[in-house]
Amino acid sequence: MEATKAKTHPQEAEARVIRRRPFKGGIFLLRLKTDPPLGLIQPGQFVMLRGEGLDPLLPRPFSVHDQEGNYLDLLIQPRGRFTRYLSQIRHGERLILVGPLGRGFPQPEKKKPPFLLVAGGIGVAPFGLWLKMFGPAPLIYGARSRQDLIRLSFWKALARPLILTTEDGSLGQRALVTSPLQEALKKGPRTILACGPTPMLAAVARLAQETNSPAYISLEAQMACGTGLCLGCAVKARPGGYLHVCQEGPVVLAEEVEFD
Ligand SMILES: Cc1cc2nc3c(=O)[nH]c(=O)nc-3n(C[C@H](O)[C@H](O)[C@H](O)COP(=O)(O)OP(=O)(O)OC[C@H]3O[C@@H](n4cnc5c(N)ncnc54)[C@H](O)[C@@H]3O)c2cc1C
Ligand code: FES
């Protein structure tokens, strides 16, 4: 079983803003209508998005959170220039989108250990599409504080069970996501799917190795092209060389990555 390759070819599309729904901690949901429609997106694949003007010049990558027909939902955390611009964008405004890109998460298989999803912060985004497409699975979802855990009724409806953690203990267990993950792995190996900040992915990779659990992780890298041309998204690979996150990822087997 390997990370899922794209079944549709990436294409450029016009994306019109249909809805922007803000949540408490600053994260917001952006619903876009694409023309032409993108075809079926694999959970974990991403799109490159930019405005119609030249600022910022380079497009930015975002995981697809949900898809219905030619509507796409993205979950976005404001970080810098472009995401702040998106946090103010109005209904009807247009963006340029290229996608779907990269390799997504694998789907459940009878021969493999049961699936367990692990999300840190905005890393929860791709699991909306995964749970909708492949059905319920346990989801461990953690963040710093309760305001950063968003769409809880959405996750409750899709994940079985939903285990929440916060670093300040304001909701769910006061712990990092690796703590309930470690507990779950005591019952036997699981096929882990994880998305979140790099230190979290490194900790997940260690736990997976200790318990002989296959782990598929969605890597974060800054991207300039998203299509294998600029080589800007390289991360160190094991046993040597580099992986290009936009082409060989973003979802890769944890054992293929060299975490420093
Ligand atoms: C495959 C993939 C999927 C992603 N999915 C989502 C998503 O669903 N929702 C979401 O909110 N974000 C997602 N991101 C991150 C998103 O692409 C960045 O937050 C965005 O590019 C920031 O653009 P900006 O212009 O707002 O910030 P910039 O001004 O470009 O950067 C602001 C700060 O964020 C840092 N930064 C920018 N991009 C990254 C990155 N990729 N990794 C680590 N640090 C970064 C910069 O170093 C800088 O410190 C994803 C990234 C990748 C690679
Ligand atoms: S982003 Fe350009 S090669 Fe990956």
Report on this model:
GO terms for molecular function: 2 iron, 2 sulfur cluster binding; flavin adenine dinucleotide binding; metal ion binding; oxidoreductase activity. It comes from Thermosulfuriphilus ammonigenes. InterPro entries: Cbr1-like_FAD-bd_dom, Cyt_c3_hydrogenase_gsu, Dihydroorotate_DH_ele_sf, Dihydroorotate_DH_Fe-S-bd, FAD-bd_FR_type, FNR_nucleotide-bd, PyrK_electron_transfer, Riboflavin_synthase-like_b-brl. Its cofactor is [2Fe-2S] cluster; FAD. This is Dihydroorotate dehydrogenase electron transfer subunit. The longest helix is centred in the last third of the chain and has 13 residues, at 198-210. The strands form three sheets. The protein has a seven-stranded antiparallel beta sheet with strand order 4-3-7-1-2-6-5. 45% of the residues are buried. The chain has six helices and 16 strands. Helix content is 18%, strand content 32%. The chain has 260 residues and is an alpha/beta fold. It is globular and about 50 Å long. It has helices spanning 81-86, 127-134, 152-158, 178-185, 198-210, 245-248, and strands spanning 11-22, 28-35, 46-51, 60-63, 66-68, 71-76, 94-101, 115-120, 139-143, 162-166, 173-174, 191-195, 215-218, 234-236, 242-244, 251-253. Helix 4 (178-185) packs parallel to helix 5. The protein folds into two domains: 11-101, Translation factors (Elongation Factor Tu (Ef-tu), domain 3, Beta Barrel), CATH 2.40.30; 115-218, Nucleotide-binding domain of ferredoxin-NADP reductase (FNR) module (Rossmann fold). FE2/S2 (inorganic) cluster binds next to loops.
